Each structure stands twice: as C-alpha cells, then as structure tokens.
Here is the input.
Amino acid sequence: MKKLTVIVALTFLLSNLLQAQSDAALRLVIEKDRASRDARGKLVTLNAAEHLSRGKIYFDNRHFPESREHFQKIFDNFATDAAMSGALFMTGRSYYWERAYDKAIPWLDRAAREFPATKDGREGLSFKGACHVRLGKHAEAAKTYEQYTIMYPNGERIDGAYLNTIDALREAGKYDDASAWVDKARARFAGTATEASALHARLRMEMYRGRWQDAEATAALMQAQARFAGSMTSIDEVKFLRGFALEKQNKRSEATAIWSSFPEGSTSYFSGLAADRVNGGRVIKTVSTSANDFPAPYRTEILKYARPRKIDPRFLLAIMKQESSFRADVKSPSAARGLLQLVYDTALKYNRQAGFPTIQPDDLYKPAVNIAIGCEYVAALKKKFGGLDEAVAASYNGGEDNAARWLNRSKPKEAGIFTAEIGFAETKDYVQKVMRNYRIYRSLYDENLNRK
Here is the structure.
C-alpha cells in the first residue's frame, strides 16, 4: 500500500511538472512572437526548425490559427525541409479539430502523398479517412482505410483501418461488403482482441438492421469464443445486447435470464442497465459506497450555474469526478484545464453566455469560471442530443460530430445501444465511468446535493 501511495504521489508531481512546463512554454512562445513581428505586425521569417517548434507548442495548446501562421512560413520558405511533413500533418489536424474537415483533407492528403514513408504520412492517410467519415462520405472513407491496409500492413493503425472499413461500408449501406470485411478482419487477427471488435461490428450492424436472430447468434458466439481484453467491447456489453436481441424476438424470459446472470454486486455500466431492465427501469443502488469516495465539492457554484440551465448537478459532479478528480489546477496533455477540463477553443464559444466576456487560458483554472462555462457547454450538448446523458458524455470526451454520428447509427436510440456504437475505446470507457458515477451520485444525493 505504501508503494502504491508513493507511485500516486510521484505521478501527481510529474503531472504538475508537465503542466507547468506546458503553460510556461505557451507563455514563452507568445512573448517570442511579439518580438518576432515587423512594423506591420507580420511574423518575420525564422529558420524552419524554429517555426515548427513554435507552431507545435501552439498546436499542442489548441491555439490553431497561431500554429498555422508558423506552418505557413515553412510552406512559403522551406518547401524541401524535413519540417514540411509535420507542418502539413498538423495543419490538417488543426482543421480537423476545428471540424473544418473539407479544409483538413487537402493538407492531410499532401502529407500522405508527399511523405508516405513517415509517420506523418501514415497518420495523414488515416485522418483523411476520418474526415471523409465526418463529412458523410462513407464510400470514400472505406476506400481510404482500405488503402491504408494495403500500404501499411504493419502500420500503427492497421487494426483500426480494418475496423473503420467495416463501419464505413456499413454506413454507406454496403452491408454485404461490410460483412466480408468482418471475415477478412477475423482471418487477419484471429484469436486477438481485434477479431472480437470485428464480431462486435457485425453484432451492431445486425442490431441496426433489426436482424435480431442473427444479432443474438453473433452475441452467443462472442460469449463463447471472443477474447475481450483490449477489444472495443466487453462480456457485460455482449450479454446486455444479447438480452436486448432476445427481448426483440419476444423471448422475454430468456432475456431476463441473461440480464439476471450478472454477478451479485457487479458495478459495470451494462450490469446496471440490465438491472434496470429487470427492475422496470427504476434507478437502483448497485453498490454500497461512501460519500467520501463521491464528494460534492463546489456545491454553491455548481447549483448556481447548473440550476438555471436545467442540468442535474449530480451529472455535473459525475463528469467533474472523471475529468479532474475535483482538482481545479490540473491540465491534460491535450491542453484541457480545470475542474471540467475545458479546452480554450471550446471555452471561447461559451464564455459570453456564461457571463465572462473575456477570458485567458489560465482563467479556466478558476473554479467559478470553469463551472460556469462548463455548465453552458453541457446545456448546449443536452439540447443537441435530446437529453441523452450518454451522448452528452460521449460528446464531451469524443467530440460533437462523433457523438452525433454514433447516435445516428443507433437503432433504437436507447442508452445501451448508443453506448455500444461509440467508436473510440477511450470515449466508451469514459462514458461508462461517468454514467456509473452518476448512478452512485443519484443514490447518495438529492437534486440539491443534500445527502439522502
């Protein structure tokens, strides 16, 4: 136990050190840029390495226009320099983060075509496919991902290329082709987590098509054979979906038997959904836990900003616990700051509505500012996704466009079906943890954050 405590303490110290270095680097590069402008305010030409270095610091902190200003200097003055591949990729990636996918594609395509032997080139091709998906061009996306499997059979994203091809073909309505790629993936990755993910893709596709008998058969096969560790699914999810498919076949007793088979005391997200189905959808307390593990700090600020926006403060606490463990001073590697881990470019969309006309990145470390803007953001997401909490959480972690796409391919549009469709492992895990937190907070506190 002492050894674990030391490890946690060292991790905390390292995180704080990296955060301080990141903030200091951003402040330094801003000062350098002020001194690197001519009388008209134009950025002067430096060497390629310096432009790449400054551009990357801005990029890492999500100051995308400033990053592209430096990358443009490389394009204009250092076309044969090694810095070109990174500048091309990060320019495309910056537009991707800004959801300007049509602008991102030409830059990512250049990185892929001009530097195919580099990681920037490989990543460029992969993200080009992702842009096509987000533009609804699923056939083009499938072709791009298939190209990745041909060019980079051992690339960093080879398993994702197979799985993304399956989903892109499915979304293009090419179900037979998608199923064929499931078989290809199973042959290529036999006995691995990727095979389980491919079968999971088939299960989701059959459920979307309302082919409940085929869906139940696939789920049964996965229960018997799949290797779940490291896959996009879990035994609990597959059991829940199998029960759902049985219920859709009017086999209620068999579905109830599946849903009732979760171990006593299980606290997984899908075991909670299964218990809700068996118990008529009532919110039940799945674990015996202490308020010490699920505190309600910043009560005054949370109630002040959540109530007018019709946000359950317990849901906000569930997100806050997962995002920062209630640490107001924390910063993530992706430059998210504060209690609700807001990134600066997102905060700039909501700060005025939240009552803060002007903000700087470091203002997001202030609890009142962070909570106010975070509530405005969550309220916008709830409106966008019809109040489906899982979709709000998925959007918060994985992006609005992605959550909208996952909701669009969910049929029926129920919580467990939506969560099964989440396409990022990190986001899927995040949603399940947030919703578990929320379930526990509802069992411990009322809507005014008073202990029950």
